[in-house]
Design brief:
8 helices; alpha/beta; seven-stranded mixed β-sheet; 14% strand
Amino acid sequence: MKGVLKLGGFAFDPAVPVAKIRDYAKVIKAFSRRNQLVVVTGGGSIARKYIATARELGASEAVCDQIGIHVSRLNAQILATALEESAFPEIPETFEDLTRSAGSGLVVVMGGLQPGQSTNAVAALAAEVIHADLLVNATNVDGVYTADPRKDSHAKKLDEVTPEDLMRILSSEGIRAGEYALMDPIAICIIQRSRISATVIDGRDPSNLDKALRGKRIGTRIVHVKE
């Protein structure tokens, strides 16, 4: 099986204990023993803090994006360190790096690639590159809702959603650097065009990653034909 895991930056927040990062690494190692895996890490709260500072100082959105990319790559390096010999020794920084490392037989861990492209889009692109059987988006929420549950008490969690519906639900979310929600339009379009099987899960519990990568029903599935 070929899989791509997008692990949100929440997993690398300074408040997260090192033991939990080791738990993520254990799950990833176990899956990679018999399967090909690319892991894309987000920037999280650290990236948002730096981006907010840069923006206040007058930085362009392109520069803010680049700051987020740097932080996401630092998070990737932390996870690669936890994976030890199971990880590809370099963090890919270009599309060419990704395609070269994908066939190594090791877990490829990476962050962002270029300004204007979220790490969600990078994960979707990686799924295209390796012809992934599954893309798992591990976030700090338990799935896709009909609206932002933090703002709408009537929002309902969905068991499955089409890319078209997901685009509509997330259309009001911010798309500036550091503001990408569950997925941005580019990520959704890539999932749609290549009909990638994807699922959005609560990644705060490392065991959920294991369940999702093994194909168990958890979170919200992104489907191309509603069942």
